[in-house]
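User: Please predict structures.

Assistant: First:
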Amino acid sequence: MNAAALRAAAATRYPAFLARLSELVEIDSGSRQVDGLRKVAARLAGYAAEAGAQVRTTAISDEDGCALGDAVIARISGSGTRRILLAAHLDTVFPPGTAQARPLTVDGAAGRAYGPGVCDDKGGLLAGLAAVEVLTSLGAGRFGELVLVATPDEEIGSVGSRPLLAELAATADAILCLECARDNGDLVSARKGVADVEIDLHGRAAHAGIEPERGANAALAAARLTVALQSIDGVNVGVLQAGTRPNVVADRARLVVDVRAAEPAAYEAALADITRLAGTPLVDGVSATIRVVAPTPPWSGGEGTGWLLRAAEQVGAELGLTVTHAATGGCADANLLAASGVPVLDGLGPVGGGDHGPDEWLDLQSVVPRVALLAGLIDRISQPALIDAENDATRRTAYVPSHPPTQ
């Protein structure tokens, strides 16, 4: 596709992108803030319908039946055969009141926008929609179908959206995730697996001064377990709580453990080691119960990701952009989607940084070129000859990240 036409069409979409970004950032939509999440979903559904998509929303709930908000699924049909899935999320990590306290602001001198969720992931979400609009405006419908999905619970591990993501991934030929590019412009070609492990220790209370021997000290067991767990690669005990009063032998304690690993074998080994250690009696009379929350397996890239990266590099070269990529320590829906075996590439939103913090930012100067890159990539991989694994030998060529993994 003509690079100049891509850039021009992306530039035409920029004013609407910025106006929509302001609208979405100024709605509180932290995970489990259902009213705000539904408002953001309704806005997105409206934007997508204006772009000519067939749109539906579906209610998402957690395993206890608690509402999490609505997911948006927007579909646009083309003239080809390949289905491309674009994946993003609606939720942020910020508490109620943040949007009012920190609405979208633009620093013209720096070329940056600031606000809660401005890059994670509202900027990426809107860039995906803008890329769809670019393609439709240019009549570039060589895809069979473009499917844009936006979920309300990514920041809490997509605890309710996993079945929907698995369903959509199973019918896709390629998956492009719209988390923003790293702050140096890198796309994301791999992500560590993550799990939270909650360990509750159950002991027996007793008077610490008169008859401590009648007790079973859960605090002591928690301390010993913490030391043991910290010896496992990729494991961090982030929460340790125990007891009620200093003169009572603690009858309960609680640990919350973060697990991260780049490879599936290491991820499974870490979880197995935690289970083994927690089940080992460290103090007589103290037992443990374990709960693994939202386990998200590693996405270690691979042949399909390498193929998508080469396609992105080719489109970038035509646009005058140097495409680089890196592995990262944070997980995202890309991890879950990659479990389908379909090729996945992430970090395809604009450049941004400061995620989850008070200074989260989006590089506004990157919006037009990154929207053009995404639109060009969609068009490139929509061509059957390029996506066919049997006929495309380059897809099976190994690749090396441009930058080393980050923590």
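Second:
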Amino acid sequence: MDSDRQVLSSEKVHLFFTAIRMAKQKNKKSEKTERSSGGGADFSLTALKEKLISYACRYDFLLLGIILYLAYNFCTGFGWISGDVFPASILPIALLKNHNVYFDFVASSISNPDISYAFPFVNGHYVSFFPIVTPVLVTPVYAASYILSALAGVTSPNNMYIIAKCAASFLAALAGVLIYLTGKEIFTRRIALLTTFIFAFATSTWSISSQALWQQGTVELLLIALIYLAVKNERQSSAAYIFLMGILSALFVFNRPPESILLIPVLVYIVWYQREKIPWYLAGGVLAGLPFLYYNYSIFGNAFGGYAENLALFTVNTGFIGHYLGLLFSPNVGLFVYCPVLLLSIAGMYFVWKGRVSPIRTLVLAAVPAILLDILLYSFFGPWSSSAEFCYGLRFLTGLVPVLCLFTGFFLDEWFGHGKARHQSQKKPAVIALVAALVIVSVGIQFVGTFFYGWSSTSNKSMTDERAWNATDSVIIRSYTEGSPRIAGIFWFTLPPVPPLVYFPITGG
């Protein structure tokens, strides 16, 4: 019996320790499983993060476009609007609702003497004095707004102004995206981003093109689109790119005939490097140009529409020298006064000229004489200073901004991008300080124009040649001192044209 009890006790002890070992093994497996599952979670989070970064890099242009569009839609309301942009703001409504190009349905509104000049009465109808390319191009934006408004069941007073503002923001943002995509093909990504920032917020793109449906905003968009297509064609040659360039060139001509000079570099590129595809270019031009040519002849009886009467304002005389300098450097009109950062483009031209010959560099270099000729053309325009009569700064030369920004990008790339190894010297900090100062000052000037100009009394004054050179009566300074106390706050509009989604009140406004 005793021996049996001892055997039984030893078996119990053995079973006890076996149970402990099994429990320990189970705990280890459980811990291992938990660690494994936890590691899987870490791996999933890491993979998700990497995927998001990958998508952000792949669709960086889309993200940039959204940011620019949202940023451009911040404004101080609609305290003032020029009669020059009224036809472009209303015509999409006529196209969508009445299916014609007449403004008879708003006859009472356009009888106002301040804007009636923009709506001549021709063959029994009120029509637009200005070319209609811009309003035709933004009509889909208006259509999208109406559809979204219907789906959301919302209406808003003054919705025409909001839609027009958002359409202008859309065109400016799209131009910014194309500047970035073009810059990425030529410069480093960092330089492309900096160049895009300068284009978007340190030039008249912000204070003019994104604020209303000026023709110059479309000039900017079409010009950088043409350059981008040329760059893409050099990466992978295609007749489709040349065909699209023909379409855009025709739109460019009929949108603002005087700016046709800026097509010189495009024509140089086509004739010099794409001679065998000239038929494709011409086909695109004819396809896009015929409808607008027909419109001009059927309404006005000439190829240039209402603009034909402006030809009499171009006169050749010795005064053009002062006008030329004034367009660039006068205190209240000068391009480099409102956008001083673009002075860097002059140095950029030098770097392009001394660089290796390539089709794109040839195209960009060919833009230099086109720029000089464009400025010369407006120096022959009698009321040259009227460029700043209805807007903040030099509107006539805003179409040059994309090319000047690209030249600025070449300067930045030479010092801080591909060519930075050649400039590792004590001078580099000075260049950094110079660039930073020019960017900050330019952004500040454009900020004043974007948010304060419309509310200052100076916006309603005519710009004479004398005032253009009068540094003591600065439009920039008066816009801030007179405009800032009058605004109630900063609004953020978007489509559909609902009441502002964001409103920042300003004390004392």
